[in-house]
Amino acid sequence: MERFDYVIVGAGSSGCVLANRLSKDSAKSVLLIEAGPADNTFLISMPRGIGKLHNPKYPHVKFYQASRGGNRANEVWYKGSTIGGSSSINGMVYVRGAPLDYDSWKAAGCTEWGWDNIGRCYTELEDHELGADEVAVRGAGGPLKVSVHAVKSPLTEALMEAGVQFGIQRTDDVNSVNVVRDGGIGYNCQTTHKGQRFSAARAFLDPVKNRANLKIVTGTAVRRIVFDGNRAVGLEVRDASGDRTINVDGEIILSAGAIESPKLLQLSGIGPKGLLEGFGIPVLVDSPDVGRNLREHRVFAMRYRLRGRGSNNRDLRGGGLIRSVLNYFVFRKGALTHTAHEAVAFLKSRRDLDHADVQVGFGLFTMSMGKAGYEIEREPGLTVFAYFTRPESQGTIRLASADPAEAPMIDANYFDAAIDRERGIDMVRRVRELMNQPALKPYVVGEVTPGAAVQTDEEILDALIERGGTAYHVAGTCRMGADEGSVVDGELRVRGVLGLRVCDTSIFPTLVSGNTNGPAMVVAQRLSELMA
């Protein structure tokens, strides 16, 4: 039987980095296991292909039902289930988070995870088209291509001017440390290269996938971790040939994501004792925080009707879409090379704050519900995606049964914390202030969603709850900490057992101030250093 020194569960953003870094030692054998298929569809490489991929008929995405809290209807969450994980199906927005985020981890006892280390790791990962910069903390020459949205238009330039009129600086790099602290607006930093997606798989796996000591398998679902006493020694898996056990001589690293990693721990006897006993699962470690501390950004999409040109709506429907497809395949240009949004701003929900706490994305399109689901609108429009970046509400992920094939129960518990409600209301008012600047008067007809009739705190909060949605930034469910109650320690080792670590967004003690794809990669970069 095959045996491995390292087995990584999940070929997503974290798993791809780990496979690259750990297999550099030719004396160590590495197995990377992915439940989904290969990433060889053109819909992954085409940035706006996500509009098709986010459909149950494609096997590259895994769907979940999540409770929003209270008696409200469930919402759909999805994560990438393919080589590259969510970096292969996401909006390609590259945001690192603020130094404040990581320094708070360090202050809480995770001493190796402050910005002094994380900022350096980012520069080592990046090959940024703007070049290296010590002040902005930006890297060049690394494996991950980072570009800046290149297509400027009168509308996007008006957005930049509106940001300046609003009181924030225009910037070339929205990830600069002073911008994420003080606020700023600029064109989107994105994981694309020459008009195509540049996923974690392209950056970290493709250059090394032929290493003799690295094996990559797809279509293989991990069902449970096998223990000998309290040491992890193998994995029960299921693939097209049936069930089998993979033996591990060294360590297992769970990089299955903030939904699947806690689920796998619970299935394997590590989790809240009462929950496990209720499903007849032998308790190996009573670890109540496995599946707790779920953090998620609640994104709010505000639609604006535009006059004249500037929107991409006509390029994404009907004959315009056909022209865009041809433009993409012939020239790698046009609307289908755009990411989730074209411009980004960081701002303060209240002017007296000492740190920006709202992220805003400006997408040059609008969608509404049609006969076949959400459709691009005929009339020109702009969507402003906004969220409070440091939510304190905490949800849970818990087993629904002892069957590994069954999805877990997810409770997002949005807006449970008062600060989330307060800052969310302030956020909407601030976005409206930004969109009402003189520079946008020639372009904006008016606000469609939530609409001018929504004005009071109660009306705004109700709109946030009913019309907001997941940002797909779920984190925190295998919390790292210095305390004995944390799921993993400062080297991401699972407490109470040997030979088992977790490395993905589930280990975040708190949610970072922005998109989580970059942070998922950087935690793997940092762990590989700690394991060296």
UniProtKB/TrEMBL annotation:
Keywords: FAD, Flavoprotein. Coiled coil: none annotated. The keyword Membrane does not apply. Its cofactor is FAD. FAD binds at N90, G91, M92, V93, V222. SUPFAM superfamilies: FAD-linked reductases, C-terminal domain, FAD/NAD(P)-binding domain. GO terms for molecular function: flavin adenine dinucleotide binding; oxidoreductase activity, acting on CH-OH group of donors. Residues 257-271 form the Glucose-methanol-choline oxidoreductase N-terminal domain. Belongs to the GMC oxidoreductase family. This is Choline dehydrogenase-like flavoprotein. It comes from Novosphingobium hassiacum.
